């Protein structure tokens, strides 16, 4: 069936929510989006990366405008600090095509594609329920509405998930990720890192953690030479508040090669955030008339770089299910069969990547090309990842890599 006549509510108007709204509109549904924030979401978020094939599919399907700026690169470069010195040692290169984006620009593109949906900003959903006839009830301060389908795209603290799986709780990893962006001027006096970042995204390994670096578009008509430098740094937090920029600078000074330390430790951040790493997943991604999308369905450790990728894949599958199923309930059951195993796979992959890169990080200074390739194969253990193109990767599957959009519009990283 086409979803003509189907009433669809979407809880959350961020990337996942806008993608769900586009899916519903394209399938023919009457869509209403409830976004709790009254502010401008385009100002949130940091870096995000999607597989090139998924980006092309989203453009072809009309979810994204081809004019949305991106900063594609094809290679991953591994660096560490030379033992006993401060210079950078490159110890591996791998094919790893990715399409980095600016979270705010991605949200704007998806929001523009929701034409035909009603988008209520500053209207939080207070509670959800079911009618005796099995329809969904959405309650806000303005009253209540009933829907044939409600998509919970309300992030890692999802109200919708609490309705479907009230006993599910997040499992902390015991370490944190610091994310930020630096202006183009941070690279001005460092030509070697600047040239490297024009062709690659970079992993810097250090004892007990690693950092990810890559360029993202700035927006506002800014050109390639005006891209922001996005980063994510994983480590065990100090006793004091881990959100301090001072701690990121301390890590950089202590562990990074000299040029990279200067960029991070002395650059003026345009944005900076920190949060503890954790994961959580719902046992089912749909129970008609409700479904879960993006971080509401499952939060993986950000090494998987799957937050926004998963949400976009969720939307594409929902559109197909609504178009081809005999009823909304059948569409959601099909969605659950497809998306639930993927969430479980990504959560497990994230745990494995976290153990390998932070909790039991190798001696990066002893690694070389062959050691990295063997380490990647052992870490993936047969799993697919678009960032490991030479290891049988699935072109649309999320995995360890540069930052993406994380819970509540923060960025996510590998």
Provide an overview of this structure.
- The protein has ten helices and 20 strands.
- α1 runs parallel beside α3 (103-112), α6 runs antiparallel to α7 and α8 runs antiparallel to α9.
- A hairpin with a 5-residue loop joins β19 and β20 (411-412).
- By secondary structure, the protein is of the alpha+beta class.
- The two termini are 39 Å apart.
- The strands form four sheets. A nine-stranded mixed beta sheet has the order 3-5-4-12-13-14-11-15-18, sandwiched between helices. It has a six-stranded mixed beta sheet with strand order 6-2-1-10-17-16. Strands 7-8-9 form a three-stranded antiparallel beta sheet.
- One of its GO terms (molecular function) is monooxygenase activity.
- This is FAD-dependent monooxygenase.
What tags apply to this protein structure?
single chain; 414 residues; alpha+beta; nine-stranded mixed β-sheet; 31% helix; disordered C terminus; oxidoreductase; monooxygenase
Strand and helix layout:
Elements: E1 7-11, H1 15-27, E2 30-35, E3 47-50, H2 52-61, E4 73-81, E5 88-102, H3 103-112, E6 118-121, E7 127-130, E8 136-140, E9 143-147, E10 149-152, H4 159-164, E11 171-182, H5 191-197, E12 200-206, E13 209-216, E14 228-235, H6 245-255, H7 258-266, E15 271-281, E16 286-287, E17 290-292, E18 298-299, H8 307-324, H9 328-359, H10 369-380, E19 404-405, E20 411-412
Parallel strand pairs: 1-2, 1-10, 2-6, 4-12, 10-17
Antiparallel strand pairs: 3-5, 4-5, 7-8, 8-9, 11-14, 11-15, 12-13, 13-14, 15-18, 16-17, 19-20
Helix pairs in contact: 1-3, 1-8, 6-7, 8-9
- Specify the overall morphology: globular
Broad structural category: alpha+beta
Radius of gyration: 21 Å
Oligomer status: single chain
Mean pLDDT: 90
> How do the helices and strands follow one another from N- to C-terminus?
EHEEHEEHEEEEEHEHEEEHHEEEEHHHEE
The major sheet is characterized as: 9 strands, mixed
**In percent, how helical is the residue content?**
25-40%
Number of strands: 20
**Biggest sheet, spatial arrangement of strands:** 3-5-4-12-13-14-11-15-18
The fraction of residues assigned to DSSP E strands is: 25-35%
Q: Which residues form runs of ≥5 with pLDDT under 50?
A: 392-413
What's the total helix number?
10
From the N-terminal CA to the C-terminal CA, the straight-line distance is: 39 Å
């Amino acid at each position: 069936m086409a979803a003509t006549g189907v009433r669809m509510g979407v809880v959350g108007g961020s990337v996942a929510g806008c993608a769900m709204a586009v899916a519903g509109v394209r399938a023919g549904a009457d869509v209403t989006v409830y976004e709790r924030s009254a502010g401008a979401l385009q100002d949130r978020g940091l870096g995000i990366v999607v597989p090139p094939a998924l980006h092309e599919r989203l453009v072809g399907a009309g979810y994204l405008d081809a004019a949305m700026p991106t900063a594609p690169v094809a290679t991953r470069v591994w660096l560490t600090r030379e033992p006993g010195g401060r210079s950078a040692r490159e110890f591996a290169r791998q094919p790893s095509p990715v399409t980095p984006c600016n979270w705010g620009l991605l949200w704007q593109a998806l929001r523009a594609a929701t034409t035909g949906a009603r988008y209520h900003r500053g209207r939080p959903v207070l509670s959800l329920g079911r009618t005796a006839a099995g329809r969904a009830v959405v309650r806000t301060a303005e009253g209540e509405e009933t829907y044939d389908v409600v998509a919970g795209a309300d992030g890692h603290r999802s109200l919708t998930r609490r309705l479907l799986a009230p006993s599910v709780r997040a499992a902390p990893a015991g370490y944190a990720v610091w994310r930020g962006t630096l202006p183009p001027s941070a690279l001005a006096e460092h030509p070697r890192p600047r040239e490297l970042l024009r062709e690659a995204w970079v992993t810097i390994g250090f004892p007990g953690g690693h950092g990810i670096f890559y360029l993202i578009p700035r927006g506002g008509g800014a050109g390639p030479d005006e891209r922001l430098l996005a980063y994510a740094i994983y480590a065990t937090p100090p006793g004091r508040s881990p959100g301090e920029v001072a701690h990121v600078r301390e890590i950089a000074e202590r562990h990074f090669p000299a040029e990279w330390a200067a960029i991070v430790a002395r650059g003026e951040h345009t944005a900076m955030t920190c949060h503890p790493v954790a994961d959580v997943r719902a046992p089912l991604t749909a129970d008609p008339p409700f479904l879960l999308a993006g971080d509401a369905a499952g939060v993986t450790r950000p090494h998987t770089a799957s937050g926004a990728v998963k949400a976009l894949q969720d939307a594409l599958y929902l559109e197909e299910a609504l178009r081809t199923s005999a009823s909304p309930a059948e569409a959601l059951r099909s969605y659950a069969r497809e998306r639930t195993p993927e969430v479980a796979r990504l959560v497990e992959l994230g745990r494995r990547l976290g153990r390998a890169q932070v909790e039991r990080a190798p001696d990066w200074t002893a690694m070389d090309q062959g050691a990295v390739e063997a380490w990647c194969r052992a870490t993936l253990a047969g799993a697919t990842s678009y960032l490991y193109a030479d290891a049988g990767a699935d072109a649309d599957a999320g995995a360890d890599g540069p930052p993406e959009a994380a819970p509540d519009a923060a960025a996510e990283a590998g």
